[in-house]
Design a protein that fits this description.
With about 130 residues, the chain is an alpha+beta fold. It has a single domain, classed as Nuclear Transport Factor 2, Chain: A (Roll), CATH 3.10.450. About 25% of the residues lie in helices and about 50% in strands. A 5-stranded mixed β-sheet has the order 1-5-4-3-2, covered by helices on one side. The radius of gyration is 14 Å and the shape is globular.
C-alpha cells in the first residue's frame, strides 16, 4: 500500500495545525506509539511517543504554549509506504508571557498503516543555521 503525496500533505497539515494550537491529544494522535524523536534541545533520542508526551506535558505544566507554527520550503519524497517530509519551521511560543520565535528545520518520516491511515514514525528537528533560534 503506497503512500501518496496528498496523504503526506494532509498528515503534515493536521500535525502542524494541532501543534500550532497546543492541542495535545490531536497532536499526539499523529504519531505512531513507537515513533522516535531527535530534538536539538534534548540530550538524547526519545524512544517513543510516550517519552515525548512526558516532556511535552512538562512544558505545558510549566506554562509553555505554542501560538503559531508555519511550515515552508517543503519537499516530499515518496518511497512505497513511507515518505520523507523536509521543511523549514517557524514557531511562535508563549512561555508564561514571554514571547519568542524559533527557526528550525525538520524531517518527518510518515508511513501508511495497514488500515490506510498515515502516522509519523520519526521526527528530527534542528536549528536553522541561517535564521538561528
Amino acid at each position: 500500500m503506497e503512500i501518496t503525496e496528498a496523504e503526506v500533505v494532509d498528515a503534515a497539515a493536521t500535525m502542524v495545525e494541532a501543534f500550532s494550537n497546543s492541542r495535545t491529544e490531536d497532536y499526539f494522535a499523529c504519531f505512531d506509539e513507537n515513533a522516535t524523536f531527535l530534538f536539538h534541545p534534548e540530550e538524547r533520542r526519545l524512544e517513543s511517543r510516550a517519552a515525548y508526551r512526558s516532556i511535552w506535558d512538562g512544558w505545558m505544566a510549566e506554562g509553555l504554549r505554542i501560538t503559531s507554527c508555519k511550515s515552508t520550503n517543503r519537499r516530499i519524497q515518496l518511497h512505497g509506504p513511507v515518505a520523507l517530509l523536509t521543511h523549514d519551521v517557524e514557531t511562535e511560543l508563549d512561555d508564561n508571557g514571554t514571547l519568542s520565535t524559533s527557526f528550525e528545520r525538520e524531517t518527518i518520516v510518515f508511513a501508511k498503516n495497514p488500515d490506510g491511515t498515515v502516522s509519523c514514525l520519526h521526527e528530527h528537528l534542528s536549528i536553522d543555521p541561517v535564521q538561528g533560534q
